[in-house]
Amino acid sequence: MVVRVICFNQEGCMGCEEQAPINREVSNALGIEIEEIDALKNQEYISRYGLHVTPTIIIFNGDAEVKRFERVVHREELEQAIRDVMA
User: Fold this and answer.
1) Bridge partners, 26 (sequence order)
2) Strand bridging mode 56-61 / 34-38
3) What is the count of structural domains for the chain?
4) Which of 32, 36, 66, 87 has its CA 20 to 30 A from that of 8?
5) DSSP string over the chain
6) This prediction's pTM
7) Treating both helix axes as pointing N-terminal to C-terminal, what angle do 75-86 and 14-30 enclose, rounded to 10 degrees?
8) Which CATH number does the domain housing residue 21 bear?
9) Distance CA 28, CA 34 (A)
10) CA-CA distances (angstroms) from residue 10 to 6, 14, 54, 57, 81?
11) Cβ–Cβ < 8 Å for 22, 75
């Protein structure tokens, strides 16, 4: 299965600004892309994924959602969650 990670954010969100460099570190460490999507500019995702807050990070294994974080996630926790899905 293909692991896919999406981070939903929005302009002006303090937590999103804090999450962005963490995502880059994890992406570089694991060699995996973390997609950044502005939820307000792409509102179809709000209902599709039941988004309530930003940042929201969703990890998919294939088409199945396997993990969701609805807050700023520290590097170690995010990295481990992705590693668990990749295993």
Assistant:
1) none
2) unpaired
3) 1
4) 87
5) --EEEEEEE-TT-HHHHHHHHHHHHHHHHHT--EEEEETTTSTHHHHHHT--SSSEEEEEETTEEEEEE-S---HHHHHHHHHHHH-
6) 0.94
7) 50
8) 3.40.30.10
9) 10
10) 13, 9, 7, 13, 23
11) yes
CB 78, CB 26: distance < 8 Å: yes
Token representation of residue 25: 């570190």
pLDDT at residue 1 is higher than 90:
no
Summarize pLDDT for 9-26 with one digit per residue, the tens.
Answer: 999 999 999 999 999 999
Strands 64-69 and 56-61, by their bridges, are: antiparallel
